[in-house]
Automatic annotation (TrEMBL):
Assembly description: Homotetramer.
Name by which UniProt lists this protein: 5-hydroxyisourate hydrolase
Residue spans crossing the bilayer: none
EC number: 3.5.2.17
Tagged with keyword Hydrolase: yes
Gene: uraH
Sorted UniProt keywords: Hydrolase, Purine metabolism
GO molecular function, one term: hydroxyisourate hydrolase activity
Organism: Pseudoalteromonas fuliginea
Length: 116
């Protein structure tokens, strides 16, 4: 990865599809699978645009990673309580491209895709 990148090699974004707005202030943890154990690399909270872009300023290895989103705390401030207390997205880095992992969220479901 390019060390001069201004944003993290792994970024995320949460859009609350029930409101059509970004999900701000959601706690997210990033883990890496090392020797069959999940090791936490960093954590952060989404900004007012629902994004985390600056939480990891080091190169990343080709490996398996996991994002864990704390949905309970987000839904405490919403009219509908969370059905899923958290969302986990596990993915593999297999190339040197930037990896953007978005979460599309609603009170009763979520989905993801590889973003750009």
């Amino acid at each position: 990865m390019n060390k001069s990148m201004s944003k993290s090699p792994i970024t995320t974004h949460i859009l609350d599809t029930s409101t059509g707005k970004p999900a701000a202030n959601v706690a997210v943890k990033l883990f890496k699978l090392t020797n069959n154990e999940w090791v936490q690399l960093t954590q952060g909270k989404t900004d007012s645009d629902g994004r985390i872009t600056d939480w990891l300023n080091t190169e990343v290895e080709f490996a398996t990673y996991k994002l864990v989103f704390d949905l309970d705390s987000y839904y405490q401030n919403q009219p509908t309580p969370a059905f899923y207390p958290e969302a986990q997205i596990t993915f593999r880095l297999q190339d040197t491209k930037h990896h953007h992992i978005p979460l599309l969220l609603s009170p009763f479901g979520y989905s993801t895709y590889r973003g750009s």
